[in-house]
Write a structure and sequence with these properties.
TIM Barrel; 9 helices
Length: about 325
């Protein structure tokens, strides 16, 4: 298998596409977690009053000596996951799923984690993705099938970023390939809803007919709009960035959440994209402002935090 699904993708990257949507800002998105993330710790007993309803949970607590996909991250232990989600009033967790998820200690960890989260009333989505899947959609179908066999997931959440680390992505090629990937994933997901992490700026680029966001949205049952910024207001704030994507999702009846970042500035691509150096109070205040801006928008499901271990580090 050419795909290294053991690596949890969280390399810092920024897509240089200035002058779009009238902001002239650096458009960026980030892939999911790496070893550069903060060291895990026990989930703190802090009750957030913000409107954060979900989180990305990249990693696992499996002992690497038992399973070579294991990362030994204590914060991802089933009981710790469930405790953190319950303490923070979360209703949804995107739980990372390695390749061949139904085999070995990883399979046991996934089943136990999903059961623990269900026990505290949390909906769990199988989270994963690799840009190489675009060239061979059968790979995403296999990954989804293995995830469904491993645990009683409620949904599938894809994080596939074929534009990553490309200064000038070829969206005329990327878009139809991504559509084919989503079709394969949806078929394999069966009755499970299919969601995806999509950066806000996909509403500003076009493969030739409509935007990339509009091309992908019909294949999804929900969308996590990635709008990484460390403030809610202003032309480069979370609200303005996410608004066009939120409007598009709402108009088509797709539930959506707004994603914010808590990883370190070097991983996020700059301090302006993350709350890591701003603290918990800023995270709460700004996400409350996001809630106020979108609460009346049909389909709005709250704010989702990227990601568990860096959120724990932010809380301190």
């Amino acid at each position: 298998m050419a795909i290294d699904t053991r690596r949890l993708r969280r390399a810092a990257l920024a897509t240089l596409m200035t002058g779009l949507a009238g902001t002239g800002a650096l458009l960026m998105t980030a892939t999911a977690a790496t070893a550069a993330s903060p060291a895990p710790g026990d989930p703190p007993s802090v009750q957030s009053s913000s409107t954060i309803t979900g989180m990305w949970a990249w990693g696992n607590s499996v002992d690497p000596s038992v399973d070579n996909r294991g990362l030994g991250q204590a914060a991802l232990a089933p009981a710790a996951l469930a405790s953190f989600a319950q303490q923070h009033g979360l209703s949804s967790v995107y739980l990372s799923v390695p390749w061949s998820a139904n085999q070995g200690a990883i399979g046991t960890w996934l089943a136990d984690s999903v059961d623990a989260l269900h026990a505290v009333g949390v909906r769990v989505s199988a989270l994963g993705g690799d840009a190489s899947w675009l060239a061979n959609p059968s790979l995403v179908a296999q990954w989804v099938s293995d995830a469904r066999a491993a645990a009683d997931f409620d949904a599938v959440q894809l994080d596939v970023e074929p534009w990553a680390a490309q200064a000038h992505p070829d969206f005329a090629t990327i878009t139809p390939a991504y559509v084919a990937l989503l079709r394969a994933a949806k078929s394999a997901a069966g009755p499970l809803p299919l969601g995806a992490d999509l950066p806000w700026w996909l509403t500003t680029v076009s493969p030739g007919d409509g935007t990339v966001f509009d091309a992908l949205l019909p294949l999804l049952d929900s969308v996590a709009i990635v709008a990484f910024a460390d403030h809610a207001a202003g032309p480069d704030g979370v609200i303005a960035l996410a608004q066009p994507a939120a409007d598009a999702a709402s108009a088509t009846g797709r539930p959506f959440t707004i994603g914010v970042e808590t990883d370190s500035p070097d991983v996020a691509g700059g301090a302006q994209f993350t709350f890591a150096d701003d603290g918990e109070a800023a995270l709460v205040t700004e996400t409350d402002a996001v809630r106020d801006a979108f609460s009346a928008t049909s389909g709005y499901g709250g704010v989702t935090v990227e990601h568990l271990r860096s959120w724990i580090a932010l809380i301190g």
